[in-house]
Amino acid sequence: xxxxxxxxxxxxxxxxxxxxxxxxxxxxxxxxxxxxxxxxxxxxxxxxxxxxxxxxxxxxxxxxxxxxxxxxxxxxxxxxxxxxxxxxxxxxxxxxxxxxxxxxxxxxxxxxxxxxxxxxxxxxxxxxxxxxxxxxxxxxxxxxxxxxxxxxxxxxxxxxxxxxxxxxxxxxxxxxxxxxxxxxxxxxxxxxxxxxxxxxxxxxxxxxxxxxxxxxxxxxxxxxxxxxxxxxxxxxxxxxxxxxxxxxxxxxxxxxxxxxxxxxxxxxxxxxxxxxxxxxxxxxxxxxxxxxxxxxxxxxxxxxxxxxxxxxxxxxxxxxxxxxxxxxxxxxxxxxxxxxxxxxxxxxxxxxxxxxxxxxxxxxxxxxxxxxx
Length: 373
Prior knowledge:
Order of helices and strands: EEHEHEHEHEHEHEHHEHHEEHHEH
Structural class: alpha/beta
Radius of gyration: 20 Å
Helix content: 25-40%
CATH architecture of the largest domain: 3-Layer(aba) Sandwich
Number of helices: 13
Mean pLDDT: 89
Low-confidence stretches: 217-237
CATH superfamily of the largest domain: Type I PLP-dependent aspartate aminotransferase-like (Major domain)
Strand content: 5-15%
Number of domains: 2
């Protein structure tokens, strides 16, 4: 089965430099001298990125014969590409409007398709019905890869408490913390590879970027007025846009691992939860769309606030206002109607721990004004 990723709907170069950022910057007040990850075991490694962690997990969990993997139809191509490279047969399973899984549909696929593996995703830091899904998969002897790219705190907690039925869990550190790279892999029943450390020159460049110094220096660089914008086209998944095989051999930057260990995780968790609650309360009567989730469970820490726009044109309007909202546009072709809709209308509103009240109010005002036009 050939996997096709469509062209991206928009290019970031089409919009002005954002003033309200999707990701946090590095701040000393969110650091501590106490190691927050001291309980990590020898079964956890820090990779260059989440894609590298996925490739290592996919390789370790391969079985003899054909490997058939179920992947949610709503996804980022970076999740899918490593399995294509590893010669898995990829089948996409549909998601419901709240991004949970229809257990009846999943059960039918497990029986009909001779499935060996399944990816489950903690979308945007929320649980959906992931525990029920993993229980069903275990009853069918399916190898489970849990994608915590948006859920670093769930990844951390699952390791400490052994609270997941997954055979492997991956995370993306730079989604939640102010680092330029960093993935994590926890796979307790398999040997982990030795990863190549990054060069010290590369390390220094990464530190400068994390501190925001390299970005400030770029402001003095003369722009290239002769450059032309390239136009993307539909690409077969064997020609990877995001995954590079060498990434599965590379370790994260040393300072990324240091950030994961010495960030004030409890403070960051609470700030993100508070910001989410504030945005939800102020947007509850918004006419431009609605929040996909309005409450947080006890252990949920939001990566973003997923917001379903009533009009697809609102995405461009928000970006033109300098708000770095994101969306998954390059979802592979499938029969899932929810994914086809959400690639245009479901946007990721920032709610990270560095956001100020003024930035959140600016975000709220911009969205509210769209619904009043």
